[in-house]
Sequence to fold (580 residues):
Amino acid sequence: MNPDLDRYEGVIGLEVHAEMLTASKIFCGCSAAFGAPPNDNTCPVCLGMPGVLPVLNRRVVEFAVRAGLAIDCRIARRNRWARKNYFYPDLCKGYQISQFELPICEGGYLDIHVDETTKRVHLTRIHMEEDTGKNIHDAHGDSSLVDFNRSGVPLLEIVSEPEMSSPAEAGAYLRKLRTLVQYLGICDGNMEEGSFRCDANVSVRLRGATELGVKVEVKNMNSFRAVEKAIAFELERQADTLDDGGHLVQETRLWDADREETRSMRSKESAHDYRYFPDPDLPPIILSEDFIETIRRALPELPDARRERFVSAFGLPAYDAEVLTSRRDLAEYFEAVVAAHGNAKAASNWIMGDIIRLIHERKLDDAPIITDWPVPAANLAALIALIDEGTISGKIAKTVFEEMLTSDESPRAIVERKGLVQMSDESAIQAVIDEVLAASPDKVAEYRGGKEKLQGFFVGQVMKATGGKANPPLVNKLLMAKLKA
Amino acid sequence: MKIGPDDIRTVARLARLNLTPEEEASMVTTLDAILTYMETLNALDTTDIEPTAHIIDLETPWRADEVTNEANTEALLANAPARDGNHFRVPKIID
Ligand SMILES: [Zn+2]
Fold:
């Protein structure tokens, strides 16, 4: 770390915008799906035509309450919509419908783990709002193009207190939050496609000082790594500036991923003046206890609870449980394997090893929900069953697994087709052992003379002669009996 | 005076309005009269009254999360002053 940073501590708050996984938009019946042809998912409401009226999508409120309950927020029983006014071509009405006073959730916290310690990061608020359209700038010399398919897609804005002090803490908070919204089924968490976006408020202050430094807002980060790098760069830049006797200005800076630096975004307008006021088209939302309790009862098992259950119910090491519950789809895959066969530790080993390696290799990490697993859960369970029942050895299982990656056949069918069934016939193995020992009389003599580590050599020869199919414990047993005879 | 030329210029800039000096002067007089009228309302004691966000005593009606609109792109783009394929075309934006 830069020596300058020893004198300073970072003060970091994060603002996350999560696009909700609703079927339709927040105030109209247009599809909220990603990837439609330009402007296909639009109507007079989300194009801001005069005279239209917004009608609220109930699921948006349900999702916001779901998030608030999972994060332990206070849920406002009375909610108000506000207009946030500014001009930009992707904002067709000239205002965004959002919440200002009385957001749906206030307070709450996430516990993050960094360097073996647990830290509680508090949330300021969560509110609902509509997304804007998208400008395409560089297509034509003298004009910009606008696609309003995202206009009116529901967003949750989740604002943390400025309680993180390092890039690692910010990264841990962000990962935890993404895992949570994915578990809750309210957002797919895809940072590259922009359905889970993060802006960071970063400042530094002398270590131990209580007053906050000058705050810089950093935008344009589209991966976890980018957020961590941008914050690290910004902390160092601010510390260097102060140490050189310079002064910092409150501004918005954009992260340039290619040059790995933040650059000032020169704004024409001196200060934002959004002139929020209550939206006259939308009366307040009144939430009943019954509405909230129904959502609370239907909450899925959350990551922390699932991690603890994996340790207590399956006897997994804490590390395995942490990795397996880091994604809801991964946890469900693991549970499907265990449900089909049992042997949770073997299932965990296969998933933590080969399956996760393949997920990385096939770049499935960024997929919101993995559906195209390297092998189906039922087949992985069947493979583990073949080992447990002694049909194949663990070594042969690796060969079968490789075959499963390119074949739809069941592991059992592969084993039969390729003749990989484990050789457990004592007399057949005995015959091979006799051949191996007869072929190396000098080594046998050495072994009997005390060089016991030659046992590995003999086992290897037997396995080689049987194409790896001999049952290893049986080989050992018979070999010992013969050599010690 | 409740409002001066500087306030008028700020509000005009936020609303993207170009006012002539004469218009600015007349706005000062007109808006000042409106704000002075508000003084009458300020005279009321509202200590125990909850701020009013909405004058009609209604709850927000809501709808089920269903896609009910089909693509109607041609008709909607027909209203645009300029288009480019299926995009709306606007004067170039410089950040
Ligand atoms: Zn619409």
Q: What stands out?
A: The two ends of chain A are 65 Å apart (CA to CA).
